Amino acid sequence: MAELLGLGCSHGPIILTPPEVWHKSRERIFGRNPNFQAPPQLIEALGDDNGLTQDRLDQQKIVDAFQVMRDRLHEWNPDVLLVIGDDQSENFKQDNLPPFCLYTGSEVDGYPFKNMGGNNNSWDAAANTKFSFICPADFSRDLRNSLIRDGVDMSSSSALTGWEWGLAHAIINPLVYLDPEGKFPLLPLFVNCYGEEAGPDYPPRPTARRCYEVGQAIRRFLDTRTERVAVVASSSWSHSFLAHKFDCSAIDLDTDRRYLELVREGKGSELAKLTPEELQNSGDHEILNWIIALGILGDVPAEIVDVRESHTQLAFRVAALWG
Ligand SMILES: [Fe+2]
User: Fold this and answer.
1) How far is the CA of 126 from the centre of ligand 1 (A)?
2) Which domain covers residue 215, as residue numbers?
């Protein structure tokens, strides 16, 4: 039987930057949308200092939540750290766009500060700072083989074009908090959460149902193993710039609060019923990462460590633990 620890967190670049510069990403992202209409909650959170007070508060809560999760992870001391995150045209380009891809190499690097411009990160670290991880190649190949024989046509890569960039930000950013030392063997699982949102050349994102089934198939494999596996679901939920029902201008708070209660109560399997249209409308594209994790963990209640709802940080952020 698998011994599992679950962690849910966000990965947006702002988790690595000081709150004093958060307004820049806001302005850049809002500026991309010609139909942008500031929702009243955003105007309120911006206050009279362009959101700095709110940003400082949110940043501290995010850092504190990562500390809680890091402590639990290191105390639990997993044999494998499975991180489920979406690639956003980083490692996966038009030449290869699988719905899911397991990394089967034996090591991997990440450069989380590279695209932030200079030393623009909370640690004032150099832009080319490298984080290195060993990876459980045999375990990963066994998982891939088991999934395929179980009916899930999982792709894999140990030498993907694009690795010179290092790990996609959805994988590497949370690790800056959770395991910057590379203590635990890292197994990245990529998910094409953006799908058609990234452009007409991109295949649709996998369905919530399929993501949940992939999680269940991973669990069937884990139940045959003795390794202790920590499963990290890496993503925010509704993104203001993806919430089509609000003209890509506002986070869908009501919807995400509903999903949060399901996760809290151990009814995560309900999220497998979400339709592609629901995900598209509420901007919850990236919750697919969590739905895979929920398929692995099963319907067990989550301990909600923190919830960030401010429109100033562009997405609904949940920090959670299972087990
Ligand atoms: Fe993301």
Assistant:
1) 23
2) 3-322
Q: Which residues pair with 191 in a beta bridge?
A: 86, 100
Q: Could you tell me how far CA 174 lies from the centroid of its own chain?
A: 8
pLDDT in tens, 194-239: 999 988 889 999 999 999 999 999 999 999 999 999 999 999 999 9
Strands of the chain (E only): list them: 3-9, 80-86, 100-103, 107-110, 131-134, 155-157, 186-191, 228-234, 303-308, 317-322
The length of the chain, given as a count of residues: 323
Residue range 165-188, pLDDT digits in tens: 789 999 999 999 999 999 999 999
Q: Are 30 and 36 in contact (CB under 8 A)?
A: yes
Give the number of domains in the chain: 1
What is d(CA 243, CA 249) in angstroms, rounded to the nearest whole number?
7
- Residue 243 alpha carbon to ligand 1 centre in Å: 14
Ligand 1 centroid, distance to 251 Cα (angstroms): 14
CA 181 to ligand 1 centroid distance, Å: 23
Instruction: Provide the CATH number for the domain around residue 260.
Output: 3.40.830.10
